[in-house]
Amino acid sequence: MVNILGTALLRFLTNEVNILKNSRVYFTGINRYTSYFIRDCLVSPCNTGSGAFKAEGFALKLDRIGNVTIGELIDVNWQHIYPEGFRKMLDYLKNRYPEIPFFITEKRFGDLQKPETTIKELLHVAKRTQYMSGYLEALQAAMR
């Protein structure tokens, strides 16, 4: 991180480093919204764009590669339905940090507000039900 971010990296005082080293993490909260294809711009050529800059870690985020998208696009134009990405993230976390419990603190279906939508329609949206069902199945698979 020091090599990539240099002076943009937050510096800790010696006593702050000691506090962090001796502290215990009680849990990790996860806000999870979408998945992307990622290109490592340290070893792969990347066009300038979102993620290709030093402060963003030299990783280019893509929602499609050629004609292949990372999942179904929904009303919010940056959010895709891709439960497999959620499961992969959970698997990574449980393998990387096996002693730290984690909680999904936010996971939602991005829906644009439409003034004409009735409460009944909001409560019975098939796409939202399908979305949540897919992500709950991914969560269950990761827990197994």
Q: Descriptors for this entry?
A:
Glyco_hydro_1, GH, 34% helix, 144 residues, thioglucosidase activity, thioglucosidase, alpha+beta, two-stranded parallel ribbon, two-stranded antiparallel ribbon, beta-glucosidase activity, single chain, 2 domains
Describe this protein's structure.
The protein is globular. By secondary structure, the chain is α+β, with helices and mostly antiparallel strands. It contains 5 helices and 8 strands. α3 runs parallel beside α5. Helices cover 34% and strands 17% of the residues. A two-stranded parallel ribbon has the order 1-8. It has a two-stranded antiparallel sheet with strand order 2-3. It has 2 domains: 2-31 and 74-143, no CATH class; 36-70, no CATH class. The two termini are 33 Å apart. The model has no long low-confidence stretch (mean pLDDT 84). β6 and β7 form a beta hairpin. The longest helix has 18 residues, at 126-143. This is thioglucosidase. It catalyses: a thioglucoside + H2O = a sugar + a thiol.
